[in-house]
């Protein structure tokens, strides 16, 4: 499936709410470790903050018809250390296993390394999401360590893998 990334804007609030959060996909919430179902007001406030935050580049993952499929975020951008965090969500499980996450990840890494001249991008992935971990490895991320029993969801503790990719690894890959 062809996708493109575009920066989240205030004008996207209604569609973002409708597609991702009005009737949320429970699998998407589980795989992202989300336990709170936000209200439309909370989403509106979140978008207002996200679009004005210099330490965040929040992209929407869109189909070629420009429909929102999910989001990818470069966050906690640290210009001094040239690093940032990364997160991604595909809003509907009907779009899982179609390569959308991989393509969006690669596009976001191009922005991080080529446009923003960052050196390092890191993420966290949960032990119950081996599909995502495999996709991150395919995109070039390396496992750095494990935070044991760091996430408590559905009455269980889970390990959290720390992964990162460096600019030179991305350029070589």
From TrEMBL:
It holds the Pfam family Acetyltransf_3. Transmembrane segments: none annotated. InterPro entries: Acyl_CoA_acyltransferase (IPR016181), GNAT_dom (IPR000182). Keywords: Transferase. Residues 3-168 form the N-acetyltransferase domain. GO terms for molecular function: acyltransferase activity, transferring groups other than amino-acyl groups. It comes from the Bacteria. This is N-acetyltransferase.
């Amino acid at each position: 499936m062809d996708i493109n990334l575009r920066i989240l804007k205030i004008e996207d609030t209604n569609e973002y709410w409708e597609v991702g959060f009005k009737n949320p996909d429970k699998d998407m919430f589980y795989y992202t470790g989300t336990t709170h179902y936000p209200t439309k007001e909370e989403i509106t406030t979140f978008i207002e903050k996200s679009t004005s935050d210099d330490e965040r580049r929040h992209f929407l993952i869109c189909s070629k018809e420009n429909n929102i499929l999910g989001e990818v975020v470069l966050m906690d951008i640290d210009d001094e250390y040239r690093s940032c965090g990364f997160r991604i969500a595909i809003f509907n499980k009907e779009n899982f296993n179609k390569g959308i996450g991989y393509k969006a990840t690669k596009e976001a890494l191009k922005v991080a390394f080529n446009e923003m001249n960052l050196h390092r991008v890191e993420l966290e992935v949960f032990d119950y999401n081996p599909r995502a971990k495999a996709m991150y490895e395919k995109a070039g991320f390396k496992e750095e360590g494990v935070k044991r029993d760091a996430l408590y969801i559905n009455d269980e503790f889970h390990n959290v893998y720390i992964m990162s990719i460096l600019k030179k690894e991305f350029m070589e890959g």
